[in-house]
Specification:
single chain; alpha/beta; Immunoglobulin-like; TIM Barrel; 2 domains; 8-stranded mixed β-sheet; 7-stranded mixed β-sheet; 9 helices; 27 strands; 27% strand; globular
Amino acid sequence: MDVPPVAAIEFNVTQGAAKAHLSWVLREGVPEKPTGLGLPGLSTELKRDVRGRYVLSLNSPKALKADTDCELRMAVTATATCAPAFDGQLHNGGVSLAGTFRGPGAVAGTEPAVRLALPLMFLKRADGWLLAGFDPTFTTTISATPEGLSCSWRLQAAAGPLTGMQRMFVLQPVADVPAGLDAWCAQVAPPAARPAWLKDIALNYYDYLGDNGEAWFSDLAAMAAVIPQEKRHHVVACMHGWYDEVGTYCMKPDGSLKDRWTAFPHMTAMGVRNPGWAAGTGGPREDAYQFRIDARLHPVEMSWSEVRRRLAYAKGLGFRTAFYAFTGLQRAGAPAAHSADGTGLERGGNLWQGPDLVGETYIANPLQPQVRRFFLDLTAQLCRHVGDQTDALVMDEAYYVGRSQLGPSACPGYAAQAQATLIAEMTAICHRTRPELAFLTADLLGGAPQVDEAVFPYSLWADGIYQDSACRPSTWGAVRFPTWASTAWSCNWAPLTNLEWTRYAVAHGGPVALANGCFGDDVGFAEMPTAVQREVIVLFNARIAALGQRPAIPTLP
């Protein structure tokens, strides 16, 4: 048995003045399974699955009467502790340490000072290290004290009935911290086999329909002129801006896709904005991330034959390709109406506005079956149309569904959990289409304080992160642990103005990031000064040389 000797697992539940307590004795095989908690409608069971993980199931056919705090307690102690912190550092403690992983649901009690990147902790015992790992599907506070180990979370009454909710955990001896992270990724959050090529990328190029669609050809040709054939598989080119509008993506009401359409249909409606500033001057600048729309830019006629021609061009040069598939779950329409019928979330804030969408927008509710069907069908359609010509589908703005977002009363539940499982299903569609076809999410885990409370590592249910974080240095620590078993890329919209940020990324495990299009510098590789092109290639070669090497994990005392 891979679980250390533990006398029992206790489960405590508090709902206002009502309290309940259960205890399971750990034995070989399946533990005892008491039923019922003494709280009306709430039932539970604990069992050990074939992989050695413990699975706690919670069910309530009706909404809880009040918010309910849950706590698992185990008689496991340690002489020292450590845990992966949100900023990418390993936080060391003594016999006591507490931290919270922020996910769906809420914190039970007072949140500790340490914010966890993943819901796990390492305990140093006389016989070596022990991994105490929990699932990432819910907010989780983990606390180690001289009295034992506990895990707590809060169920929210507003989330409605509990149907099939499960909490999963594993207690497993490990050789050291890296081995423990490997074990957690394999045991607690294991997606289908991730395509191996993702770890070979040393440069990612992002085209936002630059130069009215012509930059794709000029930039890739310029890169092919200076990158030898044998190194081109280390480059991925992402095609964006191919579709008609954010939210529909060329899907017709009957579920089929349009044959022909207009890409960036609102380009002229946006008017002239920031018609040019001196790019590449001075140090890193946040104001480099603005629209650069002028009279030269216009909507572009598009078709599936043209989309395939563009992808085939990149593949013919020997580059990998990626295909921008979704701007999160954003759609055009009135938020109040969609919240009322359950197809939208009750969420404020500014959503994407650009040449591909203007006017009122809302976030579709991933708890709603009709919404899920739309995005699954669209994923399947894209795989049928371009799955043989692209190597990855990309979901942008995943953080639009914030970690603590609940569905509206017309269709309640934990929306982040629903989007996570939706992403897992999208990923599975890609893998069934072709094992090498990946699915990536843009989680934006760090470096953007305005969304810090919303972010959640959705990439744990996908093949990795293609984050729209502008390559800000503050983002690379935040993705270290969530992408331990996968990959993390970024998009530098200002590759000239903020070239320093790309230098930092390469030094900290990220690929070279280039971009072109009417947002940011609007300068592709073909338009860069020769000296900058040369530095890009130097950085590219340096990243190739470092592939397969994990940067050292910083530690805190």
